[in-house]
C-alpha cells in the first residue's frame, strides 16, 4: 500500500477532522476593543467572505506506482468512504482511501476487469447501487455494468451516438436514483460528425447529453455547446471530459481544454435539462440550439497555493488534465466536496492528481 500527502505551503497545519476543517474555514476573530473614550465603541471584524468554491486539498499521486497513471473516470462511495478511478490504459478500477481531512490517499488493490472489448479504453465510471457502470471503449460506445469485484459484466444498451469521431466518443457517465426512477447519463467528448466541427479558438463544439431511464420512459438528448479553445496554439482542443448528475434534471459538466505550450483550461458548468429541446431524433443537434449553462467555477481563477508546481507550464498550479469528476461527502458547514482526477497519460510532463474542492450549497 502507498500513502501520499497533499502539498501544503511551509507552516500550514493539516486539519485533522472534518469538524476541525469546517471550524478553521469559518472562524471569526474579534478585533481588540478601541481605547477608552467618551463614547467607547467595541468593534468586531465581520466573518471573512467565503468563496463559492474553495480548494481544500491538492494531492499529486506517486509517479513510481503504476496505479497512479492514466486515471480517467471517478466515483465516490459514501458508505465505504472510498474513491474509485478507472484507468484508460489498464483494465482495472483503482481504489483510493482518503484520510478524513483529504490530505492523503491510500492506494489499495485494484479491481481487475475482464470485459469483451477489442481495445480497452476506460473513460468513465459511476456507482449504481451495488454495481459499477463504466465505459470500456469510448469510440465503440461500450458501456458495461459490473459487480463490485469486477465480475459479472453486462452490456448496458444506450441509444447510439451515430457518427462518433475516433477517440472523441463517450467520455462522461453518471447515474441517479430518485423517486421518479433510475437514470443513466452519458455525454460525448466532441461533436458527432453530423453535429458540426470539433472545437477551435473561434467556436466551441456541440456534444449530446443523454438521459436514459432504466425503469421505462423516453430517452432525452440535449445539445450542449462547449466554450471555444482558450488560446491559439498547436494541437489545441476543448471538450467534455466528465459529467456528474445532481438530480434527474440537473447535471454538472466538466470542460477540459489543452493547448501545447499553454497548458490546460478547466471549467465546471451546471445545466438544467428542463430548459432544453430534445435532439434525440435530429440528425444535426445544432438545429435545436444548445442548452443554457451556468458557470460554477473556472479553475484558472482559484487560489493555487495548495497545489505543487506542475510538471508542464500552466497559468495556475490548480490546472491539470482533469478527466474524472465525482461528488463527494457533505462537510459539517453544508458545503459539498467535489473530487477531480487528472490523467497524466503516463507522461513525465503531466501529473496524476486528485483535487478536492468545496462547493457552496447554492452552487448545487
DSSP summary, beta strand count: 21
Radius of gyration in whole Å, from Cα?
A: 21 Å
Which residues form runs of ≥5 with pLDDT under 50? 1-47
State the helix count.
1
- Gap between N and C termini, in Å? 35 Å
* Structure class: mainly beta
Instruction: Report the sheet with the most strands, covering strand number, pairing sense and barrel closure.
Output: 5 strands, antiparallel
Strand order across the biggest sheet? 1-6-5-4-3
Task: Name the shape in a single word.
Answer: globular
**Oligomeric category:** single chain
Mean pLDDT over the residues: 89
Strand content: 35-45%
Give the helix/strand layout.
Elements: E1 2-5, H1 18-26, E2 53-60, E3 71-77, E4 82-87, E5 92-98, E6 104-112, E7 124-128, E8 131-137, E9 142-147, E10 154-155, E11 170-178, E12 181-188, E13 206-213, E14 220-225, E15 237-245, E16 250-259, E17 263-272, E18 293-298, E19 322-330, E20 336-342, E21 353-359
Antiparallel strand pairs: 1-6, 2-21, 3-4, 4-5, 5-6, 7-8, 8-9, 9-10, 11-12, 12-13, 13-14, 15-16, 16-17, 17-18, 19-20, 20-21
